[in-house]
Amino acid sequence: MKKIICLYLFSVIVTVGALAADHKSANNINHVPTDPGANFDSIWVEYDVTEDNLRGMKIHLSFSAYSMKAMEAYVAIYFEYNDDLAGFLKDKNKKYQSSEGDVAIYKLINPAYDPAVYKDLQLFMPYTELDLEPGIYDLTMDVKLIYKQGGMINRLTYYDFKYTKPGSPADVESKAQADAKLDKLWIDYNVTEGGKNGMLIHVNFTAMNLKDVDCYLAIYFEKKNGEKIDGISSAYRSKAGQLAVYKSIKPAHADAMFTDFKLFMPYSEIKLDNGRFDLKLDANLILKNGDMIKHLKDHEFWFEQ
């Protein structure tokens, strides 16, 4: 009997010890330090915002940082080309630049919690600090969370956008500066052309100092927040892949008036999910090579399918 009791007590001690060891192991697993990191949620951009008398874009970010309590770090946004040009934009005045000399903006964070949730972290980028010549550009923001001393913690996201800088030197023989003036833009919906249902865009404008110069009226389609809409077919797509419609002009006079200039966009070319969307037309007069002459208007409208 004593032998049986001793064996029983030994079994209980071993079992309890094993459970205690398992519990300790579980606690250790739950408290193993993890490397700093982040979970990205969303990005949205406000265009044509003015801060400190500078016009630019306000970039909003939503994300969560973990294992970074009381650790200083930077949210960094780098700007690069995403069309047939290559590489990052290069800074010219050393005001908004990375250590490599690329155009960049930074914002310091110092999380007070773990995890720390940033619902609307804002960074402002003046247009002038993109350091680009006049023209139309398809660009990408490369958004990262980096250590204060350098080195990436997490890439948060990439964000494509279109930037237009007016003032292209599209000079004619007189060397006068090319320009354009918009009078009116309006849309007829549910119009049928060539057996297709779509929207007919009407534009009244004047082209100035562009006599005998080949140009295009270009209409780009995007969401209200600036997110571009991808084109489906080559007939309705920019070289960067954005949904667009073009119509060529060649003004016969120094001041050429275009009354009720029409462009048609089939609904079947607008590739979106079912639902109701707040969209925007970006109307521009451009040279044949794509250089900007004049941004005419942003026109917002609702689209439902």
**Radius of gyration, CA atoms, in whole angstroms:** 29 Å
The run of helices and strands is HEEEEEEEEEEEEEE
- CATH topology name of the largest domain, in short, is Immunoglobulin-like
Number of domains: 2
Overall pLDDT score: 85
The CATH top-level class label of the largest domain? Mainly Beta
The biggest sheet amounts to: 4 strands, antiparallel
- Biggest sheet strand line-up: 4-3-6-7
Which second-level CATH architecture of the largest domain applies?
Sandwich
β-sheet strand percentage:
over 45%
List keywords for this structure.
2 domains; Immunoglobulin-like; 305 residues; four-stranded antiparallel sheet; globular; mainly beta; 10% helix; disordered N terminus; 1 helix; 14 strands
Put the structure in a nutshell.
The protein is mainly beta and 305 residues long. The protein has one helix spanning 2-30; strands spanning 37-51, 54-66, 73-81, 104-109, 116-126, 135-147, 152-165, 179-193, 196-208, 215-223, 244-249, 255-266, 276-287, 292-304.
3D architecture notes:
- Residues 1-33 and 168-175 have low confidence and may be disordered.
- The chain is built from one helix and 14 strands.
- A hairpin with a 4-residue loop joins strand 13 and strand 14.
- It has one helix at residues 2-30; strands spanning 37-51, 54-66, 73-81, 104-109, 116-126, 135-147, 152-165, 179-193, 196-208, 215-223, 244-249, 255-266, 276-287, 292-304.
- It is mainly beta.
- It folds into two domains: 37-165, Immunoglobulin-like, CATH 2.60.40; 179-304, Immunoglobulins (Immunoglobulin-like), CATH 2.60.40.10.
- A four-stranded antiparallel sheet has the order 4-3-6-7, with no helix packed on it. Strands 11-10-13-14 form a four-stranded antiparallel sheet, with no helix packed on it.
